[in-house]
């Protein structure tokens, strides 16, 4: 039987902390029980069933390709539906969910790539495993152990990785998309179903967070006309505060991160990670949210903005 949250130790052990800083990611099995995973999957299915295509702009979630760790071209989504999603729950389609005529080739419930970006604030079941309740207290303890002084939860998402059409995600670093000066993002990634090689589990380049600086960031284009990638100009702005980094490798070796449902994966904002396309008949639902350090500068050029600015990002202090 999986342990309940009440049975889990507060925060991280010394060995877990050491492993996270060595590798740039950490797998914590049984963070959620199978019952909790089933409850969240049921809520996701309800969201997918209930949302309507009426007036939906049919926005796709598109990822860019990288060369030498740098994204090429403006290939990320950037329409108004995406740019105003920071305080809402919105639905983004898989690229391959459409036929050559631009019509959906799958039922809408099997065509969505992700739901975001304020599930934690607007859907109680997700708030309860992000910042509220006993699990919120546990997450706050983990954030403290990772050195956060003022952890702020700024976005949350369900990634569906649909059967047969779940898109590949090229190597990337989360701080590219959630940039603070200096980089401070950490992802809390929770598998709600088993994630395997066959259905597109994550892969990590262990230790790459010590070798791969954040070379550019995704920002809003002038006049909020989509998004562009802007180069980061100084070495000081590319690394977390006080970070002891190594020389960059020309090529990185990736390790599969196959995990069972209920596993929490902590992901450093600078680590290179990716996932392959899901060509299997089994989906791979996950829930993820990201923290940044509230004491670092988060400016209005970042694509994700909410009413009230960064001060309105959810405090992760274990009291909600």
UniProtKB/TrEMBL annotation:
Its cofactor is Fe cation. It comes from the Eukaryota. It holds the Pfam family PhyH. SUPFAM superfamilies: Clavaminate synthase-like (SSF51197). GO terms for molecular function: dioxygenase activity; metal ion binding. Keywords: Dioxygenase, Iron, Metal-binding, Oxidoreductase. InterPro entries: Phytyl_CoA_dOase-like (IPR008775). Belongs to the PhyH family. PANTHER family: PHYTANOYL-COA DIOXYGENASE DOMAIN CONTAINING 1, PHYTANOYL-COA DIOXYGENASE DOMAIN-CONTAINING PROTEIN 1. This is Phytanoyl-CoA dioxygenase domain-containing protein 1. It comes from Cyphellophora attinorum. The lineage of its organism: Eukaryota, Fungi, Dikarya, Ascomycota, Pezizomycotina.
